[in-house]
């Protein structure tokens, strides 16, 4: 998949969908497997690579928090991010390895469908409260990391499940969203590094197309972040995920037949 126009279109989708609890990775993989006819493994590698630009948007948006992190001025936040990232790796690495073994597009469609429905059900969980981020116990942070690791599965919305977990633990919404975004940076960096280390880095990405993809996802992601987050709080994405997941399962059944 070396067509620059196709990469640009998928980059636009990533820049927009990353801030909505609908699994931008799941949508990207579904499109690449069914429309572009990529195998599931390479499709997952492209989907991971598309996250670099939106990760940079998060870094820029929360740059003051990361400056505190690296300067050592916020030791508690640093510990929480490190603990969550460690436990994310425990679930994400074996799951990522297993997904790469998939060869059937129909099976991937079914997986995406089931995971989207799961995301939709998770989004229905009640939650929210007055707890501050710094009131979280390390055991809660570790469990959050384990849950975040499952977002490597296409169809599981990382932001959806992490924010939902934090709201169930009675965090206020602002802190839940912020911590979820902060955790996304080491998660994406880890996934990209693992992809490169295992030789699974997208073969159709040239240096020029890489710059284009990263710039598009960064610019669109940064510009639309606040607007789409406000929209996400008002819209019923639970129903959307369940409907989209059902359609993905139906697609899998049709292709199987």
Report on the structure:
By secondary structure, this protein is an all-alpha fold. The chain has helices at 4-17, 24-34, 40-61, 63-71, 75-99, 105-122, 138-149, 158-168, 173-197, 207-234, 237-256. It has one domain (4-256).
Give the domain tally.
1
- How far is it from the N-terminal to the C-terminal residue, by CA? 27 Å
Any idea what the radius of gyration is?
A: 17 Å
How many strand units? 0
Query: Major beta sheet, specifics?
Result: none
How do the SSEs run, as a string of H and E? Answer: HHHHHHHHHHH
Helix content: over 70%
Strand coverage percent: under 5%
Contiguous runs where pLDDT drops below 50 for at least 5 residues: none
- The coarse silhouette is globular
Counting helices, strands and paired strands, the structural category is: mainly alpha
Helical segment tally? Answer: 11
Averaging pLDDT over every residue, what do you get? Answer: 91
